[in-house]
Structures are given as C-alpha cells and as structure tokens.
Amino acid sequence: MDQTSHDRLLIIDFGSQVTQLIARRLRELNVYCEIHPYQNVDGAFLQAFDPRAVIFSGGPDSVMREGSPRPPAEVYRLGVPILGICYGQQVMMHDLGGKVEAGEHATAEFGRAYVTPTTSHSEVLDGWFSGDDDREQVWMSHGDHVSEIAPGFEVYGTSPGAPFAITGDPARRFYAVQFHPEVHHTPNGKTLYANFVRMAGFAGDWTMDAYREEAIRKIREQVGDKRVICGLSGGVDSSVAAVLIHEAIGDQLTCVFVDHGLLRLNEADEVVSMFRDNYNIPLIHADESELFLGELEGQSDPETKRKIIGKLFIDVFQKHANEIEGAEFLAQGTLYPDVIESVSFSGGPSVTIKSHHNVGGLPEKMGLKLVEPLRELFKDEVRALGRELGLPDSFIGRHPFPGPGLAIRCPGEITREKLEILRKADAVYIDQIRKHGLYDDIWQAFVAILPVRTVGVMGDGRTYDYACALRAVTSVDGMTADYYPFSHEFLGETATRIINEVKGINRVTYDITSKPPGTIEWE
Ligand code: XMP
C-alpha cells in the first residue's frame, strides 16, 4: 500500500468491469483513491488504509449465492461514509438487514433507464432532478434487485425495474444506488460522486503538480545513490516515467530501448533522437528485430504471439540491462489500469480478456527492485504529468501504441512483407488524419492488415493483394470505445490514397465495432 499525505478513499472491488471508472471519476475530483479486490480487504487492512470514505463497486455475482463476495463487517463500524454501487448496494442492504431478490422476471435492467425522485431528498443528490422533466438518465446493469431496504435507510429515487434505485441512511452516511454513476451514460453521475466526497470532507487537493513533487521526492528516497534502468518503448508512459526519474536522479538512470521489429515507420529513430539528443538521457538502442521476427514465424494464434513477444522482450531486456553495472532498480511506466489488470491475473474478481504485454516477473529474476512512479495514474493523467515535465505536445499527444506493436495488428501469421505493407498503409492513414486536423479528436487510430487477399482490378489488370482495415476510436481510457464517425469523403479519399500509394493492398475497409463488444486492437 502506498503512503500518501492525502486523504484516501478506498474502493472495494467486487469485480465490475467498470470499477476503474469509479477511480477515474474520483481523480477528476482531485480525490486520491485506490481500488482493492474484496479478498484483500479485512479488518487489519482497513485499519492500515485508514480511508476517509469507502465505495463498494458493482460485480457479477449474486448476494444470494453462498460464498459470494462480501466486505469485512468492520467496514460498517469505521464511522466513515460508504457508497454502494449496484452489487455494492445489494451487499450493503443484505448485510444491514434488507432483502435482495433474484431478477428472473421483469425487474432485471440492462442499459439506459430513468430515475425519478421521491419526496425525500438527500445532499448526495444536490444538482440532480433539476432538468425540465424531473428525471435523470442512468445506466443500469443488474439481474438481482433490492426488494426491501435495510432499517435506517430512505429512498430518494426509483426506476421502473429498481424501486430502490437511490437509497441512503443519512445518520450513518451510507448511500447505495442500483445504477452505475461512474459511466458516461449516467450523465449526472459525476455530480453524485462530487456530493459524496464533499460530504465525506475531502479537500480535493490531489493535483498533478503535487503529484510530481511527491513522485520526485519518493524516487530519490527509494533509489538513493543507486543506478536505475528503464525500459523505453517510445510510448507516452515509459517516456514520462523516464523523464520524471531523470529529473529526480539524473545520470543514475540508463534507458534501454528494445526494437522488436514491430514498430511503426521511422519510430525507432524518432525515439532514439528524442531521448539522446533532446534529453541527454543515457540510452542503449537494442535492435533485436531479427530475433523477434524469427521466433514469430509460423505463429498465428493471438495469445501465442503475445506470449512469445512478452518472453523474448524479457530475455532481451535482461541481456542488455546486464551491461549496466551496479543497477539495482528497474523503472517501469506501469499505469493504474495495469495494476488493476494484474490484480485480476492473480485471482482478482474481473475476467482477463487478453494477456497484456508487461515485464512482470523480470525484477525478481534479475534481482532488481521496481520503481514505478506512474502506478497511481490513468493515461490522461500521465499526459498531464508529461506536460508538466516539458515533453513536447506532439509527443505527449501521440496515440497509445501497444507493447506487442504491429504483431497484434497483423492477425494471423506475421511476415516481413506484411509488416512492410502495414507500416506504409498506417503512415498514409495517420498522415490523412493529421492533414484533416482529426488526430487530436481521435483516441487511437491504426491500420490492421488482414490475413486475406482479395481480387481487384487496377489499370485494366487483375490484382490479388491484401485487404486492410482502418480503425479509429474515441475513448477516455481505452476501457470502452466507439468508432470514430469519419465522413464518407474522408474514408473514400483515404482508401484511394492507400491503394494508390501502398503496393500490396487493393481493398480498404473501415471497422465500425465499438468496445465492448469488440476490443480496440484486432488481437
Ligand atoms: P484492447 O485491444 O484491449 O486495447 O481494447 C486497449 C488499449 O490497450 C492497448 N493494448 C496494449 N497496450 N500492451 C500495451 O501496452 C499490450 O499488450 C496491449 N494490448 C492492447 C491498445 O492499443 C489500446 O490502446
């Protein structure tokens, strides 16, 4: 558990897919919070954490199932405000003497719903129900529902499927809602969180400037006069981590940039010159593309590809890191969502969709200790920190790029030929997006080369070339995403340019899948 001088809010995770968004909303309110899976939270943990308020997340289970997730009983005796969301509401009601019923019938609600107020009002709803039609749109996702509220609770809002949509016990400052105020489809949800943290007495003083100062102090304290190595990917996260650590300890830091041959056009040169020339940070440039591409030959299963890359990356990194004498620490640009993801690997409540590229296990193997100065941040907070540190906007604003690189944009078998085609197509696509002034409106855009050739006709001749898919999404955090609504003119012009300028592609499609049900990358 991290030590911070700020008031802390504890989110107990019962396995909802959107638990991180609760943290996100709170960070926007400048409140420091941490998510911990319910299995790790017991009385001693609560005492050590000393939260100023607690939130119970949603979750997929049913409180009526024996052995389903519960918070420790001590949480209700802390004397701090608690907010229960969805499953969190049901748990709270169940624990405190209310009733929950299975929702096989008409009470299950998924998606948009409308909550109307009752005659009771609570401060937690300040700013709610003030529109013309006296109702609020909320996002529901529940099978079970509360059928009887616990003693001491009042009802502030109801929906057709949830008679107890918003409830609270003002004496104990316990609040519980059936819907998800953290998602964008509950437009006034942030107000509810703002009210809750204000009522809990948070000062809202967790800012990026404060974070930077605190992070630098902690890095110096942790590292002392020892040496640190940092794996640089060229992405925003590891770059910000490197610059922050360099600011804290100067030349005690050496960066290692592993080129796995799966980077975009000119990417390796750009990264190397940025760090060597602009920042004067000692950098080892390890060109290992032959090794990676060789091992990937003949492999087409997405998880196998990811695992090969992950393992090789560790081996190669280790080999080069060993050249740096006396290194005791390994720096990583691990972000908060990665921390939560890895919790789920080790038995946390949410389901793993893809094995994300990380270098977990490496520090123990090498006998290194970890420095992870971004562990508490979300992506856009890292960008804000990067700006604070003076990284150029053109760099900070770059779309995220996944660790396994172009490998996961080349579904099926990877060949050098396909990678070459993909790089060129991607460069044309991004150039188009920039020329039309759309780059900053899009969260991430890329081309995927498809494992299929199609027949075309060019200059009266037959072609038999690859098809590609353009992807562009809007998102806040990569957890959910929607496709970007390009104009038909833009799509038409881009398709023409790609087919004319990139030999090997004769068909261009646009991927209009949102996440969920799709994911952003193709693999
Ligand atoms: P998905 O495809 O899971 O991607 O919707 C969500 C975001 O994560 C990026 N991504 C990765 N980033 N290592 C990373 O550092 C990975 O293994 C990885 N896989 C996906 C993806 O580009 C998108 O921004």
Please, could you describe this protein's structure?
- This protein is α/β, with parallel strands linked by helices and 523 residues long.
- The chain folds into three domains: 8-200, Class I glutamine amidotransferase (GATase) domain (Rossmann fold, 3-Layer(aba) Sandwich), CATH 3.40.50; 208-396, HUPs (Rossmann fold), CATH 3.40.50.620; 413-510, GMP Synthetase, Chain A, domain 3.
- Helix content is 33%, strand content 24%.
- The chain contains 15 helices and 20 strands.
- The chain has helices at 19-28, 43-49, 87-96, 189-200, 208-223, 236-249, 267-278, 289-296, 302-321, 336-345, 362-366, 379-388, 393-396, 416-435, 488-501; strands at residues 8-13, 32-37, 53-56, 82-85, 99-101, 109-117, 136-142, 145-148, 154-159, 162-169, 174-177, 227-232, 253-259, 283-287, 327-331, 369-371, 444-458, 461-475, 481-483, 505-510.
- The strands form four sheets. A nine-stranded mixed beta sheet has the order 2-1-3-4-11-10-9-6-7, sandwiched between helices. Strands 14-13-12-15-16 form a five-stranded parallel beta sheet, sandwiched between helices. Strands 17, 18, 19 and 20 form a four-stranded mixed beta sheet that branches.
- The chain is globular.
- The chain starts with 7 loop residues before the first strand and ends in a 13-residue tail after the last strand.
- Residues 342-348 have low confidence and may be disordered.
- Xanthosine-5'-monophosphate binds next to loops.
Q: Averaged pLDDT, please?
A: 91
Number of domains: 3
CATH architecture of the largest domain: 3-Layer(aba) Sandwich
What is CATH's topology name of the largest domain? Rossmann fold
Radius of gyration: 25 Å
Structural class: alpha/beta
Strand content: 15-25%
Sheet with most strands: strand arrangement: 2-1-3-4-11-10-9-6-7
How would you name the CATH homologous superfamily of the largest domain?
Class I glutamine amidotransferase (GATase) domain
Q: Any low-confidence stretches, pLDDT <50, length ≥5?
A: 342-348
Number of H- or I-type helical stretches:
15
Q: What's the CATH C level of the largest domain?
A: Alpha Beta
| DSSP strand tally | 20
Distance between the termini: 33 Å
**Helicity level, as a percent range?**
25-40%
